[in-house]
Write a structure and sequence with these properties.
The chain is of the alpha/beta class. The chain is built from seven helices and nine strands. It has a single domain, classed as P-loop containing nucleotide triphosphate hydrolases (Rossmann fold, 3-Layer(aba) Sandwich). It is about 40% helix and about 20% strand.
């Protein structure tokens, strides 16, 4: 920060719209989407990066809003042409974050929230997002037992599929030490408050060179 008397302290910190990428990761059924949507209502200058997926829409999901639903062939074409910042397979489906969409969101002067799989988070960590700071957040219930309760309450999957998701979640927990923050979602209001606090704290962080 300049020593000029005309310089404000406000300019020393990142602030909203600095171009921060908040990468939210966690097990299937953890409630990531619900928490993210609530936080976006409460905080300004946040944009949601809508992932591509090859899985079929669940009841109530809207194409282009919850996910961009594409065929296997269209997804593979984007992989082949380098159209994804990250992409990963999960439970028989493929997920990916489009480069063009992400760049267009940052160009509007907002911070961006990404909802990605653990593999995708690792890819972003290794690759980076250019000059954009990246914050990695793991969001999950307090235990695998609580996760199982959530998956069963959803009522959309058979026992075998639920067991598969729990096995995957157990493996995902091994990556927890690589994340910056852990948000616990046993109670929606509490989880929203925790994720909101993370975003606010990162916006209050001193900008590089200040």
């Amino acid at each position: 920060m300049s020593s000029s008397h005309g310089t404000t302290f406000q300019a020393a910190r990142r602030g909203a719209g600095f171009g921060i990428a908040f990468v939210v990761t966690g097990p299937s059924g953890a409630g990531k989407t619900s928490v993210i949507y609530r936080v976006m209502v409460e905080l300004p200058q946040l944009a949601f990066s809508v992932s591509h997926t090859t899985r079929l829409p669940r009841e109530g999901e809207v194409d282009g809003q919850d996910y961009i639903f594409v065929s296997e062939g269209a997804f593979d074409d984007l992989v082949r042409t380098g159209g994804f910042v990250e992409h990963a397979g999960y439970s028989g489906a493929k997920y990916g974050t489009g480069i063009e969409q992400l760049e267009s969101l940052f160009a509007t002067g907002r911070d961006v929230i990404l909802n990605v799989e653990v593999q995708g988070s690792a890819s972003i960590r290794a690759r980076g997002l250019g000059s954009h700071p990246v914050v990695h957040i793991f969001l999950a219930p307090s235990s695998l037992d609580r996760l199982e309760e959530r998956l069963r309450a959803r009522g959309s999957e058979q026992d075998e599929k639920i067991r598969q998701r729990l096995d995957v979640a157990a493996r995902e927990l091994e990556a927890l030490p690589t994340f910056d923050y852990l948000v616990i979602n046993d109670d929606l209001d509490t989880a929203v408050s925790e994720l909101r606090s993370v975003i606010v704290a990162e916006r209050l962080r001193l900008a590089a060179g200040s």
